[in-house]
Amino acid sequence: MLWPKIVSFALVSLCLARVHQAANQDSSASCPTGFSRVADKCLLVGAGWKNWFEGDRYCRTLNASLLSIRNQTEFNLINSYLPEFAAYELELWTSGNSLGDSQANYFWQSTGKEATYLPWATGEPKRASGDCLSLTANYTMEAGGEVVLGEHRLTVRNCTLWGTVICETQLTRYRTELCLNPNAFYEAQIPV
Length: 192
Description:
Elements: H1 2-25, E1 27-30, E2 36-38, E3 41-45, H2 52-61, E4 65-66, H3 72-85, E5 91-97, E6 107-108, E7 132-141, E8 147-157, E9 164-170, E10 172-180, E11 185-191
Parallel strand pairs: 5-9
Antiparallel strand pairs: 1-10, 2-3, 3-9, 4-9, 5-6, 5-7, 7-8, 10-11
InterPro entries: C-type_lectin-like (IPR001304), C-type_lectin-like/link_sf (IPR016186), C-type_lectin/snaclec_domain (IPR050111), CTDL_fold (IPR016187)
Keywords: Signal
Pfam family, one: Lectin_C
């Protein structure tokens, strides 16, 4: 009579171990409220116009930073995102700047790293224009007065001019854990 109980216990234990293992391997990622996922970052176009310094401070109040651009793939995804979330924004501050660098090198304020991928607008960089980098869209006027924005590209601007900000933060990654108690089980999202 003891054998059936032992076998039943072993089977239930094996099943629960499999469920626990599967739940522990499940992971997901999400963005903070208000941010949109673009590639492996979360982006938010800020409300209102700010100069570059105010924009940097604004993003930091959201536990974020001004946008940096790492490569062509990321740049293309950002340009795909902008018509939907910043449809009428011509100029968006990025974290790129040459503040304090006499060699005219640009750095991403958000990472502290030198900017090696710089998708310049035609005729840029114009060092005399300032020290901060903005994503600026070309635009055309359609019949009927409709403004059509083109691709955003980097331009050099005076840091004290007004523009909209685009903030970035990292995805929050979660691991799903299965919590068991005598009467039920629950799934919990644990930040990784």
